[in-house]
Specification:
Layout lengths: L1 H25 L5 H11 L3 H4 L7 H10 L1 H17 L13 H18 L13 H23 L3 H27 L1 H4 L11 E5 L16 E5 L45 E6 L20 E10 L6 H5 L12 E9 L5
Parallel strand pairs: 1-2, 1-3
Antiparallel strand pairs: 3-5, 4-5
Helix pairs in contact: 4-5, 5-7, 7-8
Length: 341
């Protein structure tokens, strides 16, 4: 009853304002969490159109984000059962058992539900990140207590060692993410403010665009034709009730529509990754950086070439060891030459 009471209470506290605000913004009764479940779980096409990944996706992704804490979180249910059966030869009796496991059970229910879905994205795990950290700490406590008994090393020393390893791997991961992939976030900042509307275009790099929030005022984010054949983001209709308009080209089947594509000849700026290919105007994704008659390179930031870099070294930053195993390309901010000056 206690679980039901608190569940209902927080459902009302969080769900009621969400329902009221979303329904007002979209002009009809809307409850976003329910729509997500209906589309991704109960529709015939929702979970199979976007972001279909292998069954190992979350195992690898969460290890990259939590490293050994994720391993401890996975081990916690097993160690909790062993603690509860009070087998000193296996685990100390003062570890975390069924009581702690019951309180953290929502994490493992969440993982089960999303692990079996074909559509997998890192953001689906965001709500349980705090619980992963908690279960990682509980699992680490149980495992390290058992190890301290088996190898006759103090619990404190093992804790310090585990925290040290976790810290080193975390710093290595954060550093790798910045040095290898920061170009799409930083490059738009190099455009100058403008008193007139400027069109910032993306082709094959549409999926790395950080959003219009990172552009100065009067810059409009637009997408041009590429090899991507799915639906692209579109602007709301301008006006007070823009979010309430459902356009005919909107669909939930990932069917592309030309309305989302911008006229290439009207692009003032273009962001593109130079993969070293020759410029071929007939290609849907030409190397715009080599079209020197049309574009001027304003700024360049190095970006990791994932296809020609070792997987381990692109995931974790290992100074001196990994630098020779990584290859980078130029991530370019281009400006139309006719607009220069």
């Amino acid at each position: 009853m206690l679980f039901i009471k608190w569940s209902v209470l927080f459902a009302i506290i969080v769900g009621a304002p969400m329902l009221i605000v979303d329904s007002y913004i979209y002009g009809k009764t809307t409850f976003a969490p329910l729509n997500i479940i209906l589309y991704n779980v109960f529709s015939s096409h929702g979970p199979n159109l976007f972001g279909v990944e292998s069954r190992y996706f979350y195992l690898i992704n969460l290890f990259l984000n939590f490293n050994i804490a994720w391993c401890f979180a996975l081990s916690f249910p097993l160690t909790a059962v062993m603690v509860n059966f009070k087998k000193p030869s296996k685990l100390p009796t003062n570890g975390f058992g069924f009581a702690a496991l019951f309180k953290t059970l929502p994490l493992y229910i969440w993982l089960f539900v999303f692990f079996i879905q074909p559509h997998k994205e890192e953001r689906f795990m965001f709500p349980v990140y705090p619980v992963i950290s908690l279960c990682g700490a509980l699992g680490a406590s149980n495992c390290i207590k058992w190890m301290s008994q088996k190898i006759n090393v103090s619990f404190r020393n093992l804790i310090v060692g585990a925290l040290g390893l976790y810290t080193i791997l975390s710093i290595s991961r954060i550093t790798a993410l910045y040095f290898n992939y920061h170009a799409p976030m930083d490059l738009p900042a190099y455009v100058n403010e403008s008193s007139v509307v400027q069109n910032m275009c993306y082709g094959k790099e549409w999926h790395r665009s950080p959003g219009s929030f990172f552009l100065p005022l009067n810059y409009r984010l637009s997408f041009i034709k590429s090899n991507f054949n799915g639906i692209l983001p579109a602007y709301y209709k301008e006006g007070q009730d823009g979010a309430r308009v459902i356009h005919s080209y909107f669909n939930d089947k990932n069917v592309a529509h030309d309305h989302m594509l911008f006229d290439y000849s009207k692009c003032d700026y273009l962001i593109d990754l130079d993969l070293g290919d020759e410029y071929d105007p007939k290609n849907a994704e030409p190397n715009y950086s080599l079209d020197i008659e049309t574009w001027e390179v304003v700024n360049t930031i190095k970006f990791l070439d994932v296809n020609n870099s070792w997987r381990l070294f692109r995931a974790f930053h290992l100074p001196m060891i990994g630098s020779s195993k990584l290859h980078f390309r130029n991530y370019n901010l281009l400006k139309r030459k006719s607009k220069l000056g």
